[in-house]
Amino acid sequence: MARNLSLAEVAEATDISTSFLSLVERGRSDITIGRLVRLVHFYGISIVDLIPSEGAKSPELVRIQDRRLLHSPAEGIDVFLLGPDTQRTMMPMLLEFEAGAHLAEYGRHEGEEWVYVLEGRLSLEFEDSEPTQLEPGDGAYYVAKRPHLFRNADAKRRLQVICVDSPPVL
Which of 132, 136, 140 lies closest to 120, judged by CA? Predict the structure, then answer.
């Protein structure tokens, strides 16, 4: 409303349906991380602008209770921001996937991405190749413009992954 945009204009610019945007706006539907990223880019804001902050005492120190959470129940994923904000050259995150959970759509963005599996089994999928399985202690580094998707390869256990984007995506 502050930008004088209709839902139809936002829908066209982000390739997200007007009806879905209306449901999210009224709190009647959850939004996937991929769609949220498209909206954040469209509005030229940071994901931190959308997540309440308790205000860490030190701008460089992020205690466990100060981590910001992006919860995506539709995907079964929690994203914890591990840095003080997204205005740095890197954006460290802890991703927790419920058993069998995965991102709803392939992501692609500027820069590079590094992932490291703490717990569980990650299926790292690229649009143009076969999935790669990563076990605890395994990591991967790649150009983030290449469409990629994370999937918990275990239907019975959770997955924990550290992910660092450079530059920040959200």
Answer: 136
Q: Where are the domains of the chain?
A: 56-166
Q: How confident is the model at residue 46 (pLDDT cuts 50, 70, 90)?
A: confident
Decide the pairing of beta strands 159-166 and 132-134: unpaired
Nearest of 28, 150, 140 to residue 98 by alpha carbon: 150
For 163, half-sphere exposure in the C-beta direction (CA atoms, 13 angstrom radius) is: 26
Q: Architecture of domain 56-166 in CATH?
A: Sandwich (2.60)
> What letter would DSSP give residue 137?
T
Read off φ and ψ for residue 79, nearest 5 degrees: -115, 120
What is the per-residue pLDDT across 9-34, written as a single tens digit (0 to 9) for each?
Answer: 888 998 999 998 888 888 888 888 88
Q: Which of 149, 160, 165, 138 is nearest to 102 (CA)?
A: 149
